[in-house]
Amino acid sequence: MNRLFSLTCVLFLLLGSGLPSPAGAQSSDRVRGILWTDTDCDGIRETGEGPLDDNPLGYQRMSLFYIGNDSIPFTYDDSEIGQSSPLNGNPTYVFFNGGGGYSYYIAIRPADRPAGYLPSAWQQGNDPAVDNDLRQWPDGAWATGVFVIPQGTGFYGGPPAVTGIDLGLCPSAALPRPYHTALPLVQR
After folding, report:
1. Handedness of CA 76, 22, 62, 37 (dihedral sign)
2. Which of 37, 63, 74, 128 has its CA at 20 to 30 Å from residue 148's CA atom?
3. What are phi and psi of 175, to 5 degrees?
4. What residues pair up with 66 in beta bridges, in sequence order?
């Protein structure tokens, strides 16, 4: 019994959560992108800016969400359908879940946020292949904008269905700070 349970847990972790995907979803549909440390916090991935490499967990957990029937992201009917966890030193993330023709977003849950980092400046420059697509929304959520996995894409062995959704995290120590000064106390 314990061996069967252990084998089931390993398969669950390797193959995904097993949560239902939208009707018609194929496990070969996928999303691929880059998670990087934006050392200068400008929102653009540049030469020398590498992967997140100091997360004490050894990886960064992210979630892929299907937008529910109300067609509004970040609401109660959205479903988490997959997780990706790029390892420290490896910038590429991949989601194998999601069906063509549906709307999704990627989010980093509060419990999964790396200490000492914030989303970098959002969609800077004019090259979507190197800009940051993760932002902090007014409600505090860390998520990308909504994207659609095109119908009939992401077949097994083929190119990814969606690419270029890149996530830049800025070390909070690198953020500009407001100027502070201390004035001498004057007694009258």
Report:
1. negative
2. 37
3. -70, 140
4. 79, 104
Instruction: Quick: pLDDT tens for 69-111.
Output: 888 888 889 998 888 877 777 778 888 777 778 889 999 888 8
pLDDT score for 83: 85
pLDDT tens sequence across 101-160 = 888 999 988 888 888 888 998 888 888 888 989 988 877 889 998 988 887 666 655 667
Beta pairing class for 79-84 and 134-136: unpaired
CA distances from 45 to 7, 91, 177, 179 (A): 40, 11, 22, 27
Q: What is the DSSP string of 114-142?
A: PTTEEE--SS-SS-TTTB--EEE-TTS-E
DSSP 10: H
Tokens representing 120 are: 């970098």
DSSP state of 90: -
pTM exceeding 0.90: no
DSSP letters, 4-64, are: HHHHHHHHHHHH---PPPSTT--TT--EEEEEEE-TT-SSB--TT--B----TTSB--EEE
Which two tokens mark 16?
A: 């995904």
CB 135 within 8 A of CB 8: no
Domains of the chain: 19-174 (2.60.40.10)
